[in-house]
Design brief:
This protein is 12% helix and 38% strand. The chain contains 4 helices and 36 strands.
Length: 493
């Protein structure tokens, strides 16, 4: 709530602080005071309770169910259900745990107490992670096949993968275990010291390297598979001695969901569901599936971004698409996979390496070189987009190469800067005929670039945040479709 209010009012504060002769540092300090209060308040409430009743210092306690959904827990009268609980509780007191299993499962063990009783009392002495383990009522092995991805996209795809969930109470050594497809075809054998902890998901992938280019989170994955799952309707997990631990016949009846569109996985709705019943499976929320996540979750990747820019049309220009971070940005930290050339116009030529780029084609990541061609008085332009390793494509961006423009004093004066002197921010009025893509650069007296701003300005005013700029004289440069304008700004704090 505080963060949303901060975002809502922050721009207005830049104006109000200037009007009332305050600074954005005052605003930041006030926000910090509220943040500090909100972070400290819960602990102070516990301290008041502790002092009043003479209790020991509270300690963190977590309580969870394995597998999720197999049962519920009551903690000293507090019905926790099946969702994990994390909180602080006072040691030196007696607490009670009760478990209740769902049909098809039975209670197995409390950890760390190593008790098989469904109800226990215990004395809390220190921080503790409590887990209630449940096992299938038919005594089958506590491992579940929970997601399958095999309907691949044509490009920027991870390859096939399958996900398991292990919910036994002790670590599992998969050394020598194997995954078998149709007609007893060996798809994968687990190597030495392949250990899985209780409550862990793990994947077996067709191509681990490709998978990790898309999913950068630390997901446990093994591979590579001898072939994909696309042609295997039956998947079997066998232990090292050949015992079948899990078998699933995919798409074996009409209850199974229809084959998803390219890029979507099929997921088990709940870890405790019967994998043999097609009605218990569903299509993933998006085309990435949910590897490493609960199956009702999904990855919400951001599209990458580039930027518009303006250069002269009479000089050779190097556009550092991959050599710097000036153009390509990706909040998910996906690497660039390709550059799509949407439109080319004007006499100038553009190259990636030795290849002259063409409109409508997609190229491997590379810097771009603009080679000016006569007539130099004509403009050239490039419309492009970036594609990241997950296949996400950015919006279209335009780079213009314009002829030199002489800036008259009259034009320069139309770019009015205020307030003078500036304090926490300044505003620059942009003349109507210069609206559109704008590059702004702020330099110190030694020519060092302190700030850059690339804006699709359509409102006539460019706001420059000077909160991190010390008192002094600075130079600025503004580049628009029509002109390159420079000037100076004085900052006094």
């Amino acid at each position: 709530l505080l963060d949303s209010m901060k975002r809502l009012y922050q721009k207005d504060m830049m104006i109000h602080t200037q009007h009332w002769d305050r600074s954005m540092a005052d605003w930041d300090n006030a926000i910090h005071i509220v943040e500090d209060y909100l972070s400290r308040r819960p602990d102070y409430v516990l301290m008041h309770i502790q002092d009043f009743f003479g209790l020991q210092n509270p300690v963190p306690v977590s309580i969870s169910v394995e597998p999720p959904g197999a049962g519920t827990i009551s903690f000293s009268g507090l019905n926790i259900g099946s969702k994990p609980l994390q909180g602080k509780f006072f040691p030196g007191m007696s607490y009670q745990l009760r478990s209740n299993s769902i049909p098809g499962f039975s209670f197995d063990l409390w950890k760390p107490f190593q008790s098989n009783e469904t109800s226990i009392d215990f004395q809390l002495t220190d921080s503790m992670d409590i887990v209630a383990y449940f096992l299938p009522g038919d005594l089958s092995f506590p491992i579940q096949l929970c997601e399958v991805y095999s309907n691949n996209r044509d490009a920027y795809d991870t390859g096939d993968w399958i996900e398991f969930y292990y919910y036994g109470s002790d670590s599992l050594n998969l050394e020598g275990w194997s995954i078998i497809g149709d007609q007893h075809h060996l798809l994968y054998t687990f190597g030495e010291n392949t250990k899985i902890k209780p409550g862990q998901r793990f994947l077996v992938c067709e191509d681990v390297e490709r998978f990790k280019e898309v999913f950068l989170e630390p997901i446990i994955c093994f591979g590579n598979l001898s072939q994909g799952f696309s042609n295997n309707a039956t998947l079997t997990l066998k232990s090292g001695d050949g015992e079948i631990k899990k078998i699933v016949e995919l798409m074996a009846s009409i209850e199974w969901p229809a084959l998803p569109e390219a890029g979507f996985s099929i997921e088990l709705k709940s870890i405790v569901d019967d994998t043999g019943n097609g009605a218990n499976w569903e299509i993933s929320e998006n085309r990435f599936g949910s590897p490493g996540l609960p199956n009702n979750s999904y990855y919400s990747f951001h599209v990458p971004s580039g930027r518009d820019s303006i250069f002269t049309s009479y000089e050779t220009q190097l556009l550092e698409f991959i050599s710097s971070q000036d153009f390509y940005q990706d909040l998910d930290h996906h690497n660039m996979a390709a550059i799509s050339i949407k439109e080319l116009a004007g006499p100038g030529h553009m190259f990636m390496g030795e290849t002259r780029v063409e409109q409508g084609k997609i190229y491997d990541p590379s810097d771009l070189v603009f080679s000016p061609q006569e007539p130099f008085s004509s403009s050239s332009s490039l419309v492009y987009s970036f594609i990241d390793k997950s296949g996400q494509e950015s919006s279209d961006y335009t780079i213009q190469f314009n002829p030199a423009v002489n800036v008259s004093q009259e034009v320069r004066e139309n770019f009015r800067l205020y307030p003078v002197p500036a304090k926490e921010f300044c505003m620059i009025e942009i003349p109507p005929d210069h609206l559109g893509p704008i590059d702004f650069f702020l330099f110190d007296l030694n020519g060092k670039t302190l700030q850059t701003l690339h804006s699709k300005n359509t409102e006539g005013t460019l706001v420059i945040d000077l909160a991190g700029v010390e008192s002094g004289i600075y130079f600025y440069l503004i580049r628009t479709n029509q002109a390159v304008v420079n000037g100076k700004v004085e900052v006094i704090k």
